[in-house]
Design a protein that fits this description.
Radius of gyration: 21 Å
CATH class of the largest domain: Alpha Beta
Structural class: alpha+beta
Bound molecules: flavin-adenine dinucleotide
Number of strands: 18
Helix content: 25-40%
Order of helices and strands: EHEEEEHEHEEHEEEHEEHHEHEHEEHEHH
CATH topology of the largest domain: Vanillyl-alcohol Oxidase, Chain A, domain 3
Number of helices: 12
Strand content: 15-25%
Shape: globular
CATH architecture of the largest domain: 3-Layer(aba) Sandwich
Largest sheet: 8 strands, antiparallel
Strand order of the largest sheet: 14-11-13-12-16-17-15-18
Distance between the termini: 39 Å
Length: 434
């Protein structure tokens, strides 16, 4: 296939050699490839994951390229191909007054198989990961045999965060719910209020997202609840300018670190969009799908929600004492427990602490950024933090064996793929350390 991408989404890292990068147009072609080729296989989705564990130079990169992505859809379920994007799925449902029973992430260009692969999530203590809305998964195993696993299946929790290591996912069926309108109440408050009342905000609102501007210790909060349950939005509500000075200072710091005065570049726009904020209404996609993708090192650490305050206190100390500075607010997104065995949020409400370090035009990052991310990981890991598998992390910091189903995942992986045909060489030492 011509124009088959062989880099990550923003073309800053090569994932596969051009002659080791292939497309398969459906189940038959994919099964034939798995049977006839003896290389290691790295399925690729939209390539939004941090590149560490999705490179394929040691084997063959495989892109599923289905002709039709939505295979069946009714009021209760939707069946799509593994390479259907989340955006295509959500847009199809919204056109029919339906949705997935979960909040969308900030971008929806990811494929369904890829999003499940690393534990993609949004926010809401009443929900887990996107994978928790999945009802069944069809996949080709390491021998090229087509199999289906249903939610009741013993190993389903392994597939709900599979790391591309269990086979090639061809089809996914997900639960569907009626779409509805929400109100997003937005305000800015202090870091002290955050540390004391984060749980309260989450108890009273379905979906809470906060941006903690740690330099100024100010927090911008969105509390989002169904329109028919919360206080109605005031149509005459004015815009709020209280965050503007913090945004101005953040943009200045970011400009210095990115060595660019241009406020129209994507990293600057991610901050600039908060000027003069106002409450909004809409469905969850309209409210939350607002990411402005820009080349970045992104990192997210999931900490048990009941350790939020202690973790936030330690994080503040680390940031204050570090020789380095963040140039983007810390993004806080709590979720409820998930059934995905490898997720930080497995079986426990979790607060995801998100960090973004934008790359300069030449791909470099501000001095000390990676060191700072290391200090942060050490601090959050001390509170039982575990990383998001699709983002940057250094495994040295984490105790993966603290995951109750860690060893069970190894057993499933060994059973399905004893020769490691789908196992990334950098994941092998991690996963085999069971
Ligand atoms: C700008 C940006 C915004 C993001 N926003 C969020 C967010 O809001 N929330 C969040 O949780 N994460 C977010 N992420 C992370 C992103 O959701 C994950 O990295 C996700 O896994 C990417 O999906 P993808 O289709 O790009 O898959 P890829 O990155 O291509 O692959 C991810 C994994 O899935 C496997 N895989 C892909 N297709 C298949 C298949 N058909 N069969 C078997 N395995 C397969 C791959 O081998 C790999 O292990 C963001 C990342 C970026 C860069």
């Amino acid at each position: 296939m011509t124009n088959l991408p062989n880099t990550n989404w923003c073309a800053t890292t090569t994932l596969a050699n051009e002659d080791r990068n292939v497309a398969v147009r459906g189940v038959e072609e994919a099964a034939q490839l798995i049977r006839e080729c003896d290389s290691r296989l790295q399925p690729l989705g939209s390539r939004f994951s941090y590149p560490t564990y999705v490179t394929a130079q040691d084997g063959l990169a495989v892109h599923l390229r289905s002709e039709q992505h939505i295979l069946a859809s009714d009021c209760e379920t939707i069946t799509v191909t593994g390479d259907c994007t989340l955006g295509a799925l959500w847009d199809h449902l919204r056109d029919r007054g339906r949705t997935l029973p979960i909040c969308p992430p900030v971008i929806t260009e990811q494929t369904v198989a890829g999003a499940i692969g690393t534990g993609t999530h949004a926010q809401g203590t009443g929900e887990g990961l996107i994978a928790d809305t999945v009802l069944s998964i069809d996949y080709l195993d390491a021998t090229g045999q087509l199999r289906r696993i249903e939610r009741a299946g013993e190993a389903f929790g392994a597939f709900q965060l599979h790391l591309g290591s269990l086979g090639l996912i061809t089809e996914v069926t997900l639960a569907v719910a009626p779409n509805r309108d929400y109100v997003a109440h937005k305000y800015t408050t202090s870091g002290d209020d955050l540390r004391q009342n984060f749980r309260t905000w989450n108890d009273r609102s379905e979906h809470v997202k906060a941006w903690w501007f740690t330099e100024e210790d100010r927090v911008h909060v969105w509390e989002v609840s169904p329109a028919d349950s919360g206080a109605p939005i005031d149509p005459s509500a004015t815009t709020h300018a209280d965050l503007n000075p913090v945004l101005q200072a953040t943009q200045e710091r970011m400009g210095a670190e990115l060595r660019s005065d241009d406020r129209t570049i994507a990293p600057q726009r991610t901050v600039g969009r908060f000027y003069d904020y106002a409450d909004t209404t809409g469905d969850l996609v309209e409210i939350f799908r607002n990411g402005i993708p820009a080349p970045q090192i992104n990192m997210e650490v999931g900490v048990p929600l009941d350790r939020f305050r202690a973790a936030a206190d330690d994080l503040r100390r680390v940031l204050a004492n570090s020789a380095y500075r963040l140039h983007y607010p810390v993004i806080l997104r709590p979720t409820g427990p998930t059934n995905a065995w490898l997720a930080a949020a497995y079986d426990r409400p979790t607060c995801w602490f998100g960090f973004v370090v934008y790359q300069r035009e030449d791909g470099s990052v501000a001095d000390g950024s990676v060191e700072l991310l290391g200090e942060i990981q050490a601090a959050l890991a001390a509170h039982e933090g575990l990383p998001h598998w699709g983002k940057y992390f250094d495994p040295l910091h984490y105790d993966f064996r603290s995951l109750p189903r860690w060893a069970d995942f190894q057993a499933v992986r060994h059973r399905l793929d004893p020769l490691g045909r789908f196992l990334h060489p950098r994941l092998a030492p991690l996963l085999d350390a069971a």
